[in-house]
Amino acid sequence: MSLSENLEKLSNACGVAGREAEVRNLMIKLLKPHVDEICVDKLENVIALKKGKKTAPKVMLAAHMDEVGLMVKTISKEGFLQFAKMGGIDDRILLAQKVIVYTEKGALQGIVGSKPPHIQKEEERKKIVTYDELFIDVGAESREAAAKMGAKVGDVIGFDVKYARIGKDTVIGKAFDDRVGCAVMIETLKLLAKTDCTIYAVGTVQEEVGLRGAATAAFGVDPDVGIALDVTVAGDVPGVREFDTTVKMGKGPTLTVSDSGLITHPKVLRLLLDSAEENKIAYQVEAGLMGSTDAARISLTRQGVPSGTISIPTRYIHSPVGMLSLKDAENSAKLAAAAIQKIQKTF
Ligand SMILES: [Zn+2]
């Protein structure tokens, strides 16, 4: 299956942090043809192993399976679901979104509502409505009715958005952070049918709430080199200063020199830059970024693991719907594969 087909399936699946089962099952199915063994560790990371030569380095690829979302916190006596946020979500983008509440009895469709603007006071209308003033309306008329429909405190809530291709290479969809990394990881394995390196392709859990899955996965794998495949902010929209970011959608995979959790190991950065140059893959470089990726956590495992990140520029991340270029995703896989082929000479 093509990268686009895989991304469509992965994007449409639900995997709010800590509840990644649907994505995990999909990952196991999609990774299987390209690896020798697959296991799920105790935190429920997927670890796929492609065996290499004993003398060659062990490389850990990491793409997180979870997405930002919401969780039912309380159910009001009128039947409205009030929620906590799972991961970094801007309160301003929540209002009026269509969402899905994943209950044990099945999925419920709902809308994020607030006090209607018509009956707000002038000064209320100017204020940002914060998430604790919002609620999810699933059409239940009471707490008991909501419970009967299956809603419970602790149920996760995802955005109700379907993947779509809107241009030759341009796609929109939910949870591209980091389902595109998952799709790129599968594609990288496809390109590495023949390699001496031992590769652990890991779909991590709970990245959005503190890079948690990567911590246990990296401890277990004990790699020589770590590469996270994730998204980065594409700043090619109105209102973004050049100082903030120069990364553009469609201009190639992005290599992070430093973010708030990682200063990319110089040998890994050199490896990635040289691999891009030698294979004529257009790339972008960014530094001083807020936020971080699984690479930050992998790099601090045991006695330390030289690590770096290959990022796919994505617009509107951590919102209900993102946009990216499939060309960037394909080139990210090419770059990851080229770097792994070159790794033996460097490490
Ligand atoms: Zn991410």
Features:
347 residues, alpha+beta, eleven-stranded mixed sheet, six-stranded antiparallel sheet, binds zinc ion
- Give every kind of bound small molecule, once each: zinc ion
Q: Roughly what is the average pLDDT, rounded to an integer?
A: 94
Structural class: alpha+beta
SSE series: HHEEEEEEEHEHEEEHEHEEHEHEEH
- Evaluate the radius of gyration: 21 Å
Task: Bin the helical content.
Answer: 25-40%
Number of strands: 17
Largest sheet: 11 strands, mixed
The total count of helices amounts to 9
Describe the structure in your own words.
- The protein has 347 residues and is of the alpha+beta class.
- The protein is built from nine helices and 17 strands.
- The chain has helices spanning 3-12, 21-31, 122-126, 143-149, 176-191, 212-221, 266-278, 294-299, 326-346; strands spanning 37-40, 46-50, 58-64, 69-75, 81-86, 98-103, 106-113, 135-137, 156-159, 164-165, 170-173, 198-204, 225-233, 254-256, 284-286, 307-315, 322-325.
- The strands form two sheets. Strands 1, 2, 3, 10, 11, 12, 13, 14, 15, 16 and 17 form an eleven-stranded mixed β-sheet that branches.
- Strand 6 (98-103) and strand 7 form a beta hairpin.
- Helix 1 packs antiparallel against helix 5, helix 5 crosses helix 9 (326-346) and helix 7 packs across helix 9 (326-346).
- It is globular, with a radius of gyration of 21 Å.
- The two termini are 33 Å apart.
- The mean pLDDT is 94.
- Zinc ion binds at residues 64, 177-178, 207, 230-231.
- Residues 64, 177-178, 207, 230-231 line the site of zinc ion.
